[in-house]
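Look over what follows to help learners.
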Amino acid sequence: MIRVLVVEDHPIVREGVMTVLERERDIKVVGAAETAREGLRLAATLRPDVVLLDLKLPDADAFDGVASFAREGRSIVVFTAYDSDEDVFRAIRGGARGYLLKGSPAVDIAQAVRQTHAGESYLSPRIAAKLVKGVTEPRGRAGLLSGRERGVLRLVAAGQSNRQIAETLKISERTVKFHVTAIFNKLGADNRAQAVAIAAERGLLSDR
């Protein structure tokens, strides 16, 4: 059972998300909070596996909450209405493993919780598409990654798992893992979401 703490200051949104998650057989909402401070207090006692965290809370700077929960070793899924590149990059660099837009379908909310709990990363499909589509010109760092690595990274950004990437590129899953590890090392990334964010900042997701 995946234990989730919801930190969201808008009651209607908070209750809606809790209702969605409580319908899932493998997910249990163990608590809810309206502020970052209350959320941190509950996290210390309830020990959730995943924290679904609003990016903008009344008692915390937009990204202080992310950093605070990250220091506690929690898997964080940012849940926000803000989709600017800067917000995505800062949240992921701050330690978030997932970035989910408010208004996302119930299936996406549950999937974000499952993937981050499994040690993977999650980006809302709209965010992933925006990061890939929004980068139109390399910024002088394309040589950092090989052509194959950039191809793998674009599929990571599209939300594909290692197995799906292997099937798409007609290579073994072991080879995909090798490429993903190399990408992490070259970019200085700790996880898939960070790798996508860093690559997008550097203009490495373009196919040009």
